[in-house]
Amino acid sequence: MSPPERLNALIARVDQVARQSEGEYSVQWAGASSQAAIAELEQALGVRISGSFRDFIVKTGGGGLDSLSISTIPAHEPLGGLGTVHGDTLHYRTGWPASLPAHLVVIQRSEDDNEPFCLDTSRVQDGENPVVLFYHQSTGRVEPIAASFTAFLEDYLEPYWEDLPE
After folding, report:
1. What was the pLDDT predicted at 21?
2. DSSP letters of 26-59?
3. What is the pLDDT of residue 163?
4. Are 42 and 49 contacting, i.e. CB atoms less than 8 angstroms apart?
5. β-bridge mates for residue 146, sequence order
6. CB-based burial of residue 147 (10 Å sphere; 0-12 exposed, 13-18 middle, 19+ buried)?
7. pLDDT at residue 31 in the model
8. Lower CB count within 10 Å: N or C terminus of the chain?
9. pLDDT for the residue numbered 166
10. Nearest-angstrom CA–CA distance, 72 and 86
11. Is the alpha carbon torsion for 39, 44, 46, 52 positive or negative?
């Protein structure tokens, strides 16, 4: 399966979880974004986003399962507050024991400010920015999580698939 096909299949499975969970899980997508919105965000943050995260944002805008919602890049307001890539990234760049380095972009944050999942925009391998975990409350350590955004989603959504029929 090609990378775009893997991503599309993953998005379809997230929608399937919501339909088959009898209300246990909800899914909310922000709505398709645009290359122009991503470019505006990139310019504001001084980064370049590559690979499957970019494709995911163009297709969905962000969002997903309520328990693992991905930060959004809205097509009409890419420079928003918390819940957006822009707002979430700025949130972690100051005011913590370890500030988020400029090359990391937050793609998923918990509401209780646990360590955020980020794209490492300083690296591109096979067209992908890797996903890392950033320890902002302590050492500032960066822990590799996945080689791509699609691989990250596959790993972290795995528990939701267990109860679904194939």
Report:
1. 73
2. -EEE-----HHHHHHHHHHHT----THHHHHHHH
3. 57
4. yes
5. 131
6. middle
7. 95
8. C
9. 52
10. 8
11. negative
Contacts 24+ apart (CB under 8 A), 109-115: 109/71, 109/82, 113/137
Phi, psi of 67 (to 5 degrees): -85, -10
Residue in the structure block whose two tokens are 């997508």? 29
> Where do we find the tokens 């899980």?
25
Task: In whole angstroms, give the CA distance from residue 159 to residue 162.
Answer: 6
According to the model, what pLDDT value does residue 16 have?
85
What does the chain look like in DSSP terms, one character per residue? --HHHHHHHHHHHHHHHHHHTTTSS-EEE-----HHHHHHHHHHHT----THHHHHHHHH-SEEEGGGPBPB--SS-SS-STTBHHHHHHHHHSSSSSPPPTTEEEEE--TT--PPEEEETT--BTTBPPEEEE-TTTT--EEEEESSHHHHHHHHHHHHHTTS--
Q: Is the dihedral of CA 131, 152, 94, 136 positive or negative?
A: negative
